[in-house]
Automatic annotation (TrEMBL):
<dbReference type="GO" id="GO:0005829">
    <property type="term" value="C:cytosol"/>
</dbReference>
<comment type="function">
    <text>Endoglycosidase that releases N-glycans from glycoproteins by cleaving the beta-1,4-glycosidic bond in the N,N'-diacetylchitobiose core. Involved in the processing of free oligosaccharides in the cytosol.</text>
</comment>
<feature type="domain" description="Cytosolic endo-beta-N-acetylglucosaminidase TIM barrel">
    <location>
        <begin position="81"/>
        <end position="357"/>
    </location>
</feature>
<feature type="region of interest" description="Disordered">
    <location>
        <begin position="474"/>
        <end position="500"/>
    </location>
</feature>
<keyword id="KW-0378">Hydrolase</keyword>
<protein>
    <recommendedName>
        <fullName>Cytosolic endo-beta-N-acetylglucosaminidase</fullName>
        <ecNumber>3.2.1.96</ecNumber>
    </recommendedName>
</protein>
<dbReference type="InterPro" id="IPR017853">
    <property type="entry name" value="GH"/>
</dbReference>
<dbReference type="InterPro" id="IPR005201">
    <property type="entry name" value="TIM_ENGase"/>
</dbReference>
<dbReference type="InterPro" id="IPR032979">
    <property type="entry name" value="ENGase"/>
</dbReference>
<dbReference type="GO" id="GO:0033925">
    <property type="term" value="F:mannosyl-glycoprotein endo-beta-N-acetylglucosaminidase activity"/>
</dbReference>
<keyword id="KW-0963">Cytoplasm</keyword>
<feature type="compositionally biased region" description="Basic and acidic residues">
    <location>
        <begin position="474"/>
        <end position="484"/>
    </location>
</feature>
<comment type="similarity">
    <text>Belongs to the glycosyl hydrolase 85 family.</text>
</comment>
<keyword id="KW-0326">Glycosidase</keyword>
<dbReference type="Pfam" id="PF03644">
    <property type="entry name" value="Glyco_hydro_85"/>
</dbReference>
């Protein structure tokens, strides 16, 4: 990584002195060729976490050849810090990442020869449909001997390919970033290109989602000369791999050249332009100006590789880590493409993989600080912070895991939580667990649907009214204690709030914070409230939504029609299958009647 990045990074990120590692408790890289070739799949797993990684979640919308991608390259103090432990640790302040919906590929990076991603990062990424790559790196003066041995002959290349494939398959990640940062003898360059080709081909055989990327470093002449663009000196590696990760010291001229060399729109998605968040010899200085670099890259129709996003955690930004993350990613938001769950079931407690206790069904089952990214659950889109709303993880109370999603709204607000592509049959069961920390106001969980057969049709909205509404009843109907949503007192408050909402909606029309990609229409599919009860201080509402053929859920969000504070503890969506363990007596009957009983 030319421009001082690697050398500076190595000085800043000098790994701390550690006691001897215990392979049954933590994962480590392979530092030498000898370690690498001797690696073999153990007969007995070192730890269940190694072989029980989360499978890669199907994602929607899917990527096309021309989609502009965003890669995230982890680089945290040399790697393998708190994240190396299979079962996590007690450091609640350890680095975590939770903006997965805007990321396509995650690279775990270190300066060791073979960097194997820790299971915790694989699990967190996979649960959001994000592919994970390890890193093969060789550098002048450190691991150059590894490269020399790898390129000894065809047999050594074949050995290297086989070992990398076996390691990725065993640990459950999708591929490798190849970073050769040392001079290669000209007569060995063809072997190096063949190594990349073989690795890509071999990975595709064992993993449909496999990806092998090349870092812009050594050239086809064997020289260590960072190009900062796609050109004739690195094209052979670009063509042998699934894409190229360009160095960071680019200019407009480099970006324009890369677009042309890639053949325009169809090939430019494979060109990942490097972004150094630390801002070392980099466009506009990185840091909180990182968005300017991403804006520039997107203006040339290229993908991006964000390196060292942990700057918000490592450095004194003048803000807390959470506020630094909010500022960084809200600024990056306009230039990201969002993705989400592509199949049912969907469930999330919003836990970010840390907490001060562990909760189950609203009860604290274990007290004490903890951090384990394997326990992170599906994260919402958080860029909406600062536009009349504050979203944050609340660790002092939860329904499941270590935290709940706190939503503070100062104005009537529609908040898109997830983008998705969810088809269902007959009845979709949607459940939400929530708790008020402010006044009870009209609260709706909404599902936006789009047509799978005619994209020109307007978005349809299914509104699941959870709280703060007074539903009209037929004359003579008696309210049910279980399903009564609000009291007369709340009704009066709601009437007053609705007057305020109508006024504020007029002032909010057209503002950026209300997300509407198409004109919306209210869906005509059957909706029924089938479960309404309190569970350990949390309110549960479960709805069934009748099938609407040719339509799928494309967005999930919430709407609060007046200022308040709400905790979201748990959300689930699945095809309806009532079981006695999920519902009280009588609720199963409600569920079975739900296709004819409308709310």
């Amino acid at each position: 990584m030319e421009g001082g990045v690697c050398n500076v990074c190595r000085n800043i990120h000098s790994p701390p002195v550690r006691p001897p590692t215990d392979p049954t408790r933590e994962i480590q890289p392979l530092k030498t060729w000898d370690e690498f070739v001797k690696w073999q799949e153990p007969e007995t797993a070192l730890h269940p976490a190694v072989v029980e990684v989360t499978r890669l979640m199907p994602r929607s919308p899917s990527l096309s050849a021309s989609t502009l991608r965003t890669l995230l390259c982890h680089d945290m103090k040399g790697g393998y810090i708190d994240d190396r432990f299979y079962e996590g640790n007690s450091n609640v302040n350890a680095y975590r990442f939770y903006h997965w919906s805007g990321i396509d590929t995650f690279v775990y990076f270190s300066h060791h020869s073979v960097t194997i991603p820790p299971p915790a990062w694989i699990n967190a990424a996979h649960s959001h449909g994000v592919k994970v790559l390890g890193t093969l790196i060789t550098e002048c003066g450190n691991t150059e001997a590894f490269c020399d041995t790898l390129l000894t002959n065809e047999e050594s290349v074949s050995m290297g390919v086989s070992q990398l494939i076996a390691i990725a398959k065993y640990h459950g990640f999708e591929g490798w970033l190849i970073n050769i940062e040392n001079i290669v003898q000209p007569n060995k360059v063809e072997l190096l290109i063949d190594f990349v080709k073989q690795l890509r081909k071999g990975m595709k055989k064992v993993c449909e989602e496999a990806e092998v990327l090349w870092y812009d470093s050594v050239t086809v002449e064997g020289k260590l000369e960072w190009q900062n663009e796609l050109n004739e000196l690195n094209r052979a590696f670009y063509e042998a791999s699934d894409g190229i990760f360009l160095n960071y010291t680019w200019t407009d001229r480099h970006l324009e050249k890369s677009w042309k060399e890639a053949g325009g729109k169809e090939g430019a998605g494979k060109v990942y332009v490097g972004i150094d968040v630390f801002g070392r010899n980099f466009y506009e200085g990185g840091k909180f100006n990182t968005w300017k670099a991403l804006e520039k890259i997107r203006s040339y129709g290229l993908s991006a590789a964000i390196f060292a996003p942990g700057w918000t955690h490592e450095c004194d930004t003048g803000l807390s880590f959470e506020d630094s993350e909010a500022k960084m990613w809200s600024d990056l938001h306009p230039f990201l493409t969002y993705h989400g769950p592509g199949q049912l079931p969907v469930a999330t407690s919003f836990c970010q993989g840390y907490g001060h206790a562990i909760y189950d069904e609203g009860k604290m089952v274990k007290n004490g600080k903890w951090h384990n990214l394997s326990k992170q659950r599906l994260q919402p889109i958080l860029w909406q912070e600062g536009r009349g709303v504050k979203l944050n993880l609340v660790t002092s109370d939860a329904y499941k895991g270590g935290g709940s999603l706190g939503i503070v709204v100062m104005i009537p607000k529609e908040i898109r939580l997830f983008v998705c592509g969810l088809k269902w049959k007959e009845s979709l069961l949607v459940s939400v667990w929530y708790k008020w920390e402010g006044p009870v106001v009209p609260f709706t969980l909404y599902l936006n649907l789009h047509s799978t057969t005619n994209t020109s049709l307007p978005i349809r909205t299914v509104e699941l009214r959870c709280d703060g509404f007074v539903e009209a009843r037929k004359e003579g109907d008696q309210p049910s204690k279980d399903n009564e949503v609000e009291s007369n007192q709340t009704s009066k408050k709601t009437d007053q709030l609705n007057k305020t909402v109508d006024v504020k909606r007029k002032t909010e029309e057209g503002k950026h914070d209300v997300v509407q990609t198409k004109k919306k229409r209210t869906s005509k599919c059957d909706v029924s409230l089938v479960v309404s009860r309190e569970e350990n201080g949390w309110t549960r509402r479960s709805f069934t939504v009748g099938e609407e053929e040719g339509w799928e859920v494309c967005e999930i969000g919430v709407r609060l029609s007046a200022p308040s504070i709400l905790l979201l503890g748990y959300i689930t969506l699945d095809n309806f299958t009532p079981t006695s363990s999920d519902y009280h007596p009588g609720e199963v009957a409600n569920l079975l009647r739900s296709n004819v009983t409308q709310l």
